[in-house]
Amino acid sequence: MKMELIKVTPRGYCKGVVRAISMAKQARLDYPNENIYVLGMLVHNHHVVEALKRIGIIPLDEPHKTRAQLLERIDHGVVIFTAHGVSPQVINTAKAKGLICLDATCPDVLKTQAAVIEHLEKGYEVLYIGKLGHPEAEAICSLSPAVHLIENEADLKALSIEKPLFVTNQTTMSVFDIESLFQTIKAYCPTALFCEEICNATRIRQEAIARLKDIDVLYVVGDRFSNNSNRLAQIAKEHGIPHVYLIDDVFAIHSAQLKEAKRVAVTSGASTPTYVTNQVIDYLEHYEENKKYPVFDLDLLL
User: Fold this and answer.
1) Strands, E, within 20-124: which ranges?
2) What is the rounded CA–CA span in Å between residue 243 and residue 245?
3) Which residues are catalytic?
4) What's the mean per-residue pLDDT of the chain?
5) Strand, helix or coil at 28?
6) For 250-264, what is each residue's pLDDT tens digit?
7) Percent helix, strand and coil across the chain, each rounded to 5?
8) Total-model pTM
9) What 8-state DSSP symbol labels residue 10?
10) What is the spatial distance between Cα 275 and Cα 137, in angstroms, rounded to a whole number?
């Protein structure tokens, strides 16, 4: 029996990622003689980062270093702030250094930042549900000591808050995890104000995974640093798909993963190039023909 392949829709690039990559490419054209730096990964996909390096866009990304610390390495040229957002303090520091600043922050992330700032100014303490070390969470939590990062229920028990409470979240979290934590916080503080900020691209991709039925294997094409890709894999496992693989590209597919698989599905994170996902789909469509791995061309990513 031939393996059935389900191409999950929607999948791949969201509008924020498209915007960030377009801005980076345009910067190379607008400033041909300047060094162009990115504070972190422009989008969380190492293939995209490598493709950008080929056109002279330099990523600055070190584990456990904040955006402010990375900025210390730049003395002149252009700096691009990533799609995940950055704190106002970092922007002000970059401008004070005389750098040309380009802000590729996703509009959905800016909306969340604005909501947090508004409620801080009104005297609220903020519970921000997000992932420790993620640049989106870093930017929000650096706004004020009154912003508290919440990753799980244990973090709630460690808090003692008397001020009015505002609750929101990182845009790429699991919509199901957020709902669960919101309910827990409501029981803990019934008067809290809630603003669920899962971006629409993240939501509809997650809901598409949750609706899948009778799937033997799911491939999530995405980078291990991509929170939205990791959440897709997490949700698939929570909804009973027995074999879920988060893969960088087609070269991570192996015959042992597909042994006896009858229904195989493919999706991809919001920062995964269509080119990379299409190679996976094409390989799986011709899997029974023992098709060789395709040639991967970084120049086709941008």
Assistant:
1) 36-39, 57-60, 78-81, 100-103
2) 7
3) 136
4) 95
5) helix
6) 999 999 999 989 999
7) 40, 15, 40
8) 0.92
9) S
10) 29
